[in-house]
């Protein structure tokens, strides 16, 4: 496994968990030494224990020596970063091609080289040419095997996936990857076998669709605020349609992270190279960037239209909970905009403080959330960490200079308003934010109609109805 970043480390460890012997390779000697000592470069729940267990079992090892690692390998995975190029948004494939060149110089036997990094259509073809320039065709195979891991739940996503996608151009690569993923096949996990280019495109298309879904619900949240509807009820009402699904219908301050922002841009650049206009994806990217900064206006409005000299407490910095990843986190443009409006910023995150310190300027980072909100003129919830969800609202109110709460993740359904806070949420009318309870019950008038009597939707939950 070449690359010990998020994808490489999680994938390599999970392959080892299936009983394979895995060697993870990285040029960063310090990182490799830390991994050998059980110190992980990323935060992912449960990964540390999985790494330790497989190291003890001698199934997982770490090295900087690519030649030695490749020598006896049946499968060689390229799992290096493909960050967007500054100014263009194109995926930077230099690390992928560098890995391919080094693999070619070290190959022995007839292994399958698998590109697991997220790459534009045709990258596998280039990798094949790079290796073939050194090694003759027939002495190796090149395949695509995109990952679909969500930060914070990556281990479950790998061990219990919705599907596995394999892109191959010949039987040898198919045989090798089919054998590798046999534990999932035995568990009846769908395995999609397709051409290499289709597999490359599947990853980008999936992420672009999910990003579009998030942007769609965020724009509807704005409409809900204007018409007096509740976005949570709307999301439930459309999400129960199996054609739509409930996932990624949570309104908030916009998507971020290591995948959606760069993958949507890379897909647009690929489409432009082939003269294709992806208007929906273009609008998704533009709307998401605008939304992150628009959230600052919600804060401005909540405090009365003037932020100069005010202290704003930011609760949650990472782009989502259960990760320390700050890449394209909505908190970054939000904080930058608030600072331009004249606000002083204090911030807290349970895990992401070290990474946040690298990207934020003139922000006081606080380990204790209660100290973060002490004497603050407003508190803004940006990431829905469970520890933030469980904060004592009465204590927060006592500590704050003004009881103003801007809840950009809707983590406090009614409790905040009942505790005496002035609450500004996303996609909720004023009546809901004040805590007024209401229930909508839909019951069937035909007891024989199972499709109508089996489930009843209330405003805030789903209950059985007999």
Could you tell me the mean pLDDT? 91
Whole-number count of domains: 2
Q: What amount of the residues lies in strands?
A: 5-15%
User: What are the segments in which pLDDT stays under 50 over at least 5 consecutive residues?
Assistant: 434-466
Architecture of the largest domain, CATH level 2? 3-Layer(aba) Sandwich
| Number of DSSP helical runs | 21
Specify the structural class. Answer: alpha/beta
Shape field:
globular
CATH class of the largest domain: Alpha Beta
Strand order of the largest sheet: 10-9-8-11-12-13
- Report, as a whole number of angstroms, the end-to-end distance: 54 Å
**CATH superfamily descriptor of the largest domain:** NAD(P)-binding Rossmann-like Domain
The radius of gyration computed from the alpha-carbon positions, rounded to a whole number of angstroms, is 25 Å
CATH topology of the largest domain: Rossmann fold
Notes on the structure:
By secondary structure, the chain is α/β, with parallel strands linked by helices. It folds into 2 domains: 6-194, NAD(P)-binding Rossmann-like Domain (Rossmann fold, 3-Layer(aba) Sandwich), CATH 3.40.50.720; 208-433, NAD(P)-binding Rossmann-like Domain (Rossmann fold), CATH 3.40.50. Helix content is 44%, strand content 12%. The strands form 5 sheets. Strands 10-9-8-11-12-13 form a 6-stranded parallel sheet.
SSE topology sketch:
Blueprint: H1 6-17, E1 22-25, H2 29-36, H3 47-56, E2 60-63, H4 66-71, E3 75-78, H5 94-106, E4 112-115, H6 123-132, E5 141-144, H7 154-159, E6 164-167, H8 171-180, H9 182-186, E7 191-194, H10 196-227, H11 231-239, H12 260-273, H13 279-302, E8 311-315, H14 331-340, E9 344-348, H15 353-359, E10 363-365, H16 369-373, E11 378-381, H17 386-389, H18 393-399, E12 404-407, H19 415-418, E13 422-425, H20 430-433, H21 450-453, E14 456-457, E15 462-463
Helix pairs in contact: 1-3, 5-6, 10-12, 10-13, 13-14
């Amino acid at each position: 496994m070449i690359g010990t970043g998020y994808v490489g480390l999680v994938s390599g460890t999970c392959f080892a968990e299936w009983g394979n012997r895995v060697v993870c390779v990285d040029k960063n000697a310090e990182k490799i030494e830390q991994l050998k000592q059980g110190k992980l470069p990323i935060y992912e729940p449960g990964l540390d224990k999985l790494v330790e267990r497989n190291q003890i079992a001698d199934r997982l090892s770490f090295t900087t020596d690519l030649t030695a690692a490749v020598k006896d390998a049946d499968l060689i995975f390229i799992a290096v970063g493909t960050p967007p190029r500054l100014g263009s948004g194109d995926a930077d494939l230099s690390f992928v091609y560098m890995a391919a060149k080094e693999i070619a110089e070290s190959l022995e036997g007839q292994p399958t080289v698998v590109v697991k990094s997220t790459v534009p259509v045709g990258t596998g073809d280039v990798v094949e040419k790079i290796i073939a320039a050194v090694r003759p065709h027939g002495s190796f195979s090149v395949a695509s095997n995109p990952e679909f891991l969500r930060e914070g739940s990556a281990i479950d996503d790998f061990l219990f996936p919705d599907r596995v996608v394999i892109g191959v151009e010949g039987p040898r690569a198919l045989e090798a990857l089919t054998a590798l993923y046999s534990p999932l096949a035995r568990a009846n996990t769908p395995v999609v076998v397709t051409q290499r280019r289709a597999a490359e495109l599947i990853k980008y298309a999936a992420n672009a669709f999910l990003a579009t879904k998030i942007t769609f619900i965020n724009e509807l949240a704005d409409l809900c605020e204007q018409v007096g509807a509740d976005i949570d009820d709307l999301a439930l009402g459309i999400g129960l349609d199996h054609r739509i699904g409930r996932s990624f219908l949570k309104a908030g301050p916009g998507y971020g992270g290591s995948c959606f922002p760069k993958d949507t841009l890379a897909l647009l650049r690929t489409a432009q190279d082939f003269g294709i206009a992806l208007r929906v994806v273009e609008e998704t990217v533009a709307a998401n960037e605008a939304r992150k900064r628009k959230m600052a206006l919600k804060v401005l409005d909540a405090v009365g239209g003037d932020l100069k000299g005010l202290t704003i407490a930011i609760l949650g910095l990472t782009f989502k909970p259960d990760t320390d990843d700050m890449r394209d986190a909505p908190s970054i443009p939000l904080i930058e905009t608030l600072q331009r409006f004249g606000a002083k910023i204090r911030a807290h995150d349970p895990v992401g403080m070290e990474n946040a310190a690298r990207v934020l300027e003139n922000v006081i980072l606080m380990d204790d959330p209660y100290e973060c909100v002490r004497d603050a003129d407003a508190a803004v919830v940006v990431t829905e960490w469970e520890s933030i969800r469980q904060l004592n609202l009465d204590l927060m109110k006592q500590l704050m200079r003004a009881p103003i709460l801007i809840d950009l993740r809707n983590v406090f359904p009614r409790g905040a308003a009942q505790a005496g806070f002035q609450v500004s949420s996303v996609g909720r009318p004023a009546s809901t934010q004040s805590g007024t309870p209401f229930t909508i019950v839909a019951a069937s008038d035909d007891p024989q109609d199972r499709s109508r009597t089996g489930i009843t939707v209330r405003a805030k939950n789903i209950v059985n109805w007999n």
